[in-house]
Amino acid sequence: MGALTASLIAIAGLALGWVAIEMACKPCLDKGREAIDRSLNPDYDPDDDDIRAPLNPSTTPADENASDPTSTVVKIS
């Protein structure tokens, strides 16, 4: 019974350690995973990259409203 308890504690410790490392190193791990995904993508061409372009370009609210012809944009100055 003691061996079972010790193994359960060890497994729980490893799981908690893994979660702690994932949380602490999240920015670095995300960039690394993104680079791996990009390198495994057969349609990715590094020559097409613009060095100054953001990796994840976000859409602006004006872009989302531009596709909807019924919406109106009001500018307050």
Can you tag this structure with a few keywords?
single chain; 77 residues; mainly alpha; 3 helices; 57% helix; elongated
Q: Proportion of β residues?
A: under 5%
Q: What are the secondary-structure elements, in order, as H or E?
A: HHH
Q: Low-confidence parts, pLDDT < 50 over ≥5 residues?
A: none
Structural class: mainly alpha
Helix content: 55-70%
Main sheet properties: none
C-alpha Rg, in Å?
23 Å
**Extended strand count:** 0
Distance between the termini: 74 Å
What does this structure look like?
This is Outer envelope membrane protein 7. There is one protein chain. This protein has helices at 2-24, 26-40, 61-66. By secondary structure, the protein is mainly alpha-helical. The model has no long low-confidence stretch (mean pLDDT 80).
List the helices and strands and how they pair.
Elements: H1 2-24, H2 26-40, H3 61-66
Question: How would you concisely characterize the structure shown here?
Answer:
Helices cover about 55% and strands about 0% of the residues. It is an all-alpha fold.
